[in-house]
Design a protein that fits this description.
Distance between the termini: 98 Å
Helix content: 25-40%
Number of domains: 3
Shape: elongated
Strand content: 25-35%
Oligomer: single chain
Radius of gyration: 29 Å
Length: 473
Amino acid sequence: MKTLNTYYTDKEHFQDYIAEHSIVDNSQLLIQIFTSYTEEADIVKMTKEIASCFPQAAIIGATSAGEICSGRVSTGKHVVALTQFEKTELKTVFLEGRETRLNSFEIGKKLSESIEKENAKLLITFLDGLNSDGEAYLNGIGEGFSNITVVGGMAGDNGMFKETYVFTAEQCTSHGAVGVVLYNRDLHIYTDYSFNWLPIGRKMSITKAQKNRVYTIDNISVYDVYEKYLGEDVAKELPAIGTSFPLIIEKEGTQVARAILARHEDGSLSFAGDLKEGDIVHFGYGDVEMILNSSIETEKKIIKHPIESVFVYSCMARRAFMPDHIESEIMPFQELATVTGFFTYGEFFSLSGKYELLNQSMTILGISESGEVKGKSIQGKKRELNEYQKMTKALSHLLEVTTREAAEELELLEKKTELIEAQKEALNRIQEIGHFGSWEVDLKHDTAKWSQRSFETYKLDPETTRPSLDAFL
């Protein structure tokens, strides 16, 4: 198998590219399209032009928040990846949600039900990024099967958060899903992901939520929470700027981020995945140095596997957070095989036998029809930060440490408070059993405090009696 990719400008130049590389139309050709177009008419026109050159090929695509072509990162372009298989059969699937009134779970379930299970090895799938719930969609897929690897992501629209699309050669939707199933039990698959977003600030509790829409945190409007901790200017720019400040929760021992997708007039926010009442969350922030250097570890792992093509589905927050360094995270894989992909509003990943929706992550798919491990070394090197990034890292570290110390002090204070309250309760019980009271006198301010038992002993009304040393005498 082999992957070639190119930027699409028009049909004439695309045909020249096809002729130059001798690409032949056939049923074992997979074409993935990642486009910056945000108008359905433009998407349909381009897709038809590409499909007219390859009527037998399996074609799926998504609108993007940035594109990846041969390891290079771009915005405002259209990337076409052509993967020629030799031993793998392909089948595309399409599910419309709005017209059929299917919710996200039902879309996922129906998609999995439409797939012939025998010899199915891999599902690459794209879901619209704004009208659907990615977590519910993956749960629906999981109802149908769990022994197939699922990768892909939610479509973007260049960070405008207005309308996203997914499409095949014949159909396009802003509320639904597309996918391609790869049938070959001997297909070699390698998947990995990189997160490296750290929790910061105090713990907060989700107090009102419905699926992926959150209304209140700590009984305060979720919009007001963002405004309180991140400032009015940041809150006004939600959801766009909110991708860099997700909420982080822990799911079965793994930290998962949830990025904002939409802001509503009632002050609630919709996130890429579900959040439940009672979930404990933190704000998250990215550690640029950790993000970049963790990719070196990923590079060391991937070279141990058979790899002929690499596909990257990465969160747009990573590109927005470190625009000058994002290629440094992706380009080294190009030394191993052709790298293609796009920046998403949520990434799909198969983790510990379950399908998970990730945010702020870079997910990697390496595939090969050959079992040969090339063993080629990737020339990864430690990435250095510029002065501004070093300063930001220092400030982030300062905030993290002070927040942790404050949390530890608060925990200690709460334990002391609990101890004092327990002692008071014990004293009250002793007074009740022993029929005596207790009192405290502040000589400096001439005030006193009596226990309830003292008032009862002197037959005085606590509502009308002012405790004092004189009153006692």
